[in-house]
């Protein structure tokens, strides 16, 4: 049996970094998404310790239970990173970046 390969596939490696799910560009987006989640939790814990109240009712309930907080803010983002394509993670990371900026702004207003 003779197999005919398309011209564009002739020089490609099937498992190269360019087609990999974990290439450097996609890894950057995935790492940024995960780190932004952790920064958000850290800033939330700082704000709550300073006397602020959490506006999100789900997070407010999770602050009382550290195990559930870890599950929600560590393991669920890892599952999302694993299954979600980068074209959907990029806007989510941008939104999380805006949330982190908002939190930093609110915390800096206390210092002024």
* Number of separate domains: 1
Radius of gyration: 20 Å
Order of helices and strands: HHHHH
Summing up helix and strand content along with how strands pair, one would put the structural category as mainly alpha
Q: Cα distance, first to last residue? A: 77 Å
Stretches where pLDDT is under 50 for at least 5 consecutive residues are 13-19
Give average pLDDT, whole number: 83
Shape: globular
Number of strands: 0
Number of contiguous helices: 5
Task: Outline the biggest β-sheet.
Answer: none
Beta-strand percent range:
under 5%
The percent of residues in helical segments reads over 70%
Describe the overall structure:
This protein has one domain (23-111). The chain is 71% helix and 0% strand. The chain is built from five helices and no strands. The chain is globular.
Task: Write a concise keyword list for the protein shown above.
mainly alpha; 0% strand
Q: What layout of secondary structure does this protein have?
A:
Elements: H1 7-10, H2 24-49, H3 57-62, H4 66-83, H5 86-111
Helix pairs in contact: 2-4, 2-5
In a few lines, what is going on in this structure?
The protein is mainly α and 112 residues long. It contains 5 helices and no strands. It has helices at residues 7-10, 24-49, 57-62, 66-83, 86-111.
């Amino acid at each position: 049996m003779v197999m005919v390969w398309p011209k564009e596939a002739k020089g490609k490696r099937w498992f190269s970094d360019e087609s990999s799910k974990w290439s450097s560009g996609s890894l950057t987006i995935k790492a940024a998404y995960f780190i932004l989640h952790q920064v958000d939790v850290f800033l939330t814990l700082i704000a709550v310790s300073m006397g602020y109240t959490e506006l999100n009712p789900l997070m407010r309930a999770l602050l009382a239970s550290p195990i559930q907080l870890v599950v929600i803010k560590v393991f669920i983002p890892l599952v999302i990173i694993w299954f979600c394509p980068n074209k959907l993670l990029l806007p989510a990371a941008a939104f999380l970046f805006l949330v982190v900026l908002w939190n930093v702004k609110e915390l800096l207003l206390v210092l002024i």
